[in-house]
Structure formats: structure tokens, C-alpha cells
Amino acid sequence: MALYGAAAAVLEGLESGQGGIKSLVYNSGFPHVRQLYALVAETLRYSAVLDKLVSDAELLRNEKKLPPQLAKVLVYDLLFGKGLKCGGRWKALARRHRARLQAELARMKVQRGVSRNEDLLAPADSPAASQVPRYVRVNTLKTCVDDVIDFFKRQGYSYLGKAASVEDLKTLSGKKFLLDLHLPELLVFPPQTDFHDNLLYTSGHIILQDKASCLPAFLLAPAAGAHIVDACAAPGNKTSHLAAILRNKGQIFAFDMDTKRLATMNTMLMRAGVTGFQLAQQDFLTVDPGDPKYSKVTYILLDPSCSGSGMVTRVPREEAAPSAERLQALATFQRKVLSHALSFPALRRLVYSTCSLHREENEDVVQAVLQERGSAFGLVDAFPSWPCRGLAAFPGAERCLRASPADTATQGFFVAVLERCGEGAAAPSSLPAAAEENPQHGAGAEAGAAPKKRKRKKQRVK
To answer: Catalytic residue positions?
Structure first.
């Protein structure tokens, strides 16, 4: 059962936008990662077929306690894989429905005029995935950019220097890599490069994190010593990025509802050398902003649950657009949690981000909450040199950022930066100017500036 449960959890994580397939598999804690990856990848490949089989066989209707993602994994292995190898009571449950599932599979083949299982698959249609490079964030808590570049050179990679354009990132191939043109601690490799077994990754010296996912912490740009809330923190890549920006000088309060995800996050943060953080298994909406514990919280990173419509895996799969009802429910939650975050009394800057492409979860949420808050907060003109801006949903929406495989060679993403107005504070204008209080961080310098050289660290990997 452990294999199927782990695979179902990865599928759920993909749907909710928690990460890509590789990061979720390797952070799952399951000991046989190749076996798990293969099962998840093949289940994704047959996703549309499995959804129809499960529906036509009325499997979930007849087995109300069977989670949908677990159903897909079981049905895949039962009908398309090597047969159910484990699973306990779930294995017995799936076998009870085998005859009906096989009948529905046979009917589907007849209807589509095919004889092989593979012929049921749509042609691989994920060109966006091939446009997204492998991004590697250097963990400056343990090392520096120069040392990591030197390490990869010794492993036979060819360093091409700093990228001059997004097109440079898209044309990488072989064992070549670049320094990103926007983020000073981000290295860029060809899309299929795998570092999960690399010493730098296993020792926490590098973090495998998409460029768009690096934007929220980069644009929050907290000053060293600051108190920060990471409201929806797991799996923790953004939290570790915040800690690196703080140089472990400050306090991070991180919240998430899922016990297993928090445990995985704790392991990852410890591996990355993060200190000064408190993890809490708690719904952020139940956190009291007036609690003295949070009286010094001046920065909040808010990356709430969303449709995940911007996530591009490196495995072909059918993209299912969320229903209008699903989008409305998500947007209602997102507005509620953003409004709650803005009620922290000492808050100065907040970053709201999603991995969604839908305006309902992005510009519309920001507009509604800003209207609700009156003139208390305003949008910062975040990263003016960023090429992809917010949709023109309301005056000022262009201050927000969007990202996509085609335009920025990243996953699909949305970021808005809000700052408190009034009470002697300057009106929000441009984030790089606002971030000058933390000159060691890239957001406080000119966009795309080369990173300053640092002294060699004692923990240099050889």
C-alpha cells in the first residue's frame, strides 16, 4: 500500500500546485524513488483514459471511501501496469471491480477503433514542458554562486556566463549552463537535466526550484533580522529562500495544514541549513494577527492553494480546466486569506502569488481585496524589467507579474507585491527602490546585476 499511497499523494500535490513531479517524488520519503516515479509518470500519461474508466465503471460511486487519486493509481496498475503488487484492502477492492473495469476498457477500444492500450493515448502534446529549463537556486546559506559554478565545471559542464535574454535560456542543450539574467543566485540548465542524485542537491547546497517560484521571496526582499510569516509554506522551497535572503538573521513563522508535508519540509529546511524558523500545523486563517508573538511581523509571503493551472510537468498529460464552480471556490478562499494576511498590524510588505493562469485567482483577487482595504495598501511596481505583466483587469494591474513557458521560460505564475500606505510611509512605487534596505539581496540592486563575489565557505563541496 505504501507505493500506491505515495503515488496518490504525488498526484494530489501536482494537482494542487505544490511542485513538479520530480521534486514531489524525491521529497515523498518513499525509499524506492525510481519505482514511484515510473508509476506516477505512467499514471499521468494515461490520466484521461483512467478518469473515463473510473467514471464509466462508477468506481468512486460504489466505493465512497476510495480517494480519487488512489483509484487512478490502482486502476493503472491493474489494467495497464504489471498487475497489483501490493495494496492490502485497496488491492482487494480494485480486484472486485476488475471485470467491470476490463469491460469498460474493451468498450473504449471498440468505440475508438483501436486494439492496443497505447493507441488510446492522445499524441504527446506538452510543448510547453520542453521550453522550461532546469533551474538551480544556489543555497547561499551553505555556499556561493562561484563555488557551485566551479563544482559543475569539474563535473564536465560548460559554463556560458550570464544569459542575455530569455531566448538564451530556451536554447540550452547538452552539458551547458548559464547564470540567469534576472535572479543573481539562479543557474540554468537544459530541461531534462536531473540533479536529484547530485552531491550538491543531497547536501543542501543547491535547491531545485523553478525560476517563477523564486520570484515571491526575491520580491518580498525582507531585511536581515526581519520577522516573516510564510502563510502556506509546504513544501518549503520558498521558506528556505527567505532564510537565505535573511542570512538566517530573523524569524520565520511557517504554517501548513498537512502533517506529512510539514515533516518533509522540516527535513528539507534542516538539510538546507535553515535556522530561526517555527513550523506550525495550523490553518493560517485561524492565526490571530493580534497575538504578541506576531507583533514584529513586517513581511508576509502568501502562496495559497490554487488551481495549479500554470504548472507544467515534464511528463505529457491531459490538462483539465477547472470548472467555474471550482475557480469561484478557490477565489473566495484566496480573497479571505489575503484579507486576513493584511490585518497583521505591523505588516509593511506582502507578496501574493499563485501558480495559476486564471484571472479569477490572480488580478481579480488582488483587486477585490484592495478595494475592501481602501487606501491602506497599494500595489508595488514589482520588477519593472520583467517582461510579462498582469492582465489589464483594473488600473494598476500592470504592476503585477505573470510568467509562462512561452514568455519567460518558466512555469505559469502570478505575483503581486502589496505595501502599506500612509502613516508616514511613502506611496508604493518600484520594488527595487523599496528593497534597498537589503542591499545584499538581488532585488535591492539593479535588475539582472551580477552577484557579488563572496568569500569561500568552509562547507565547500569538492
So the answer is: 355
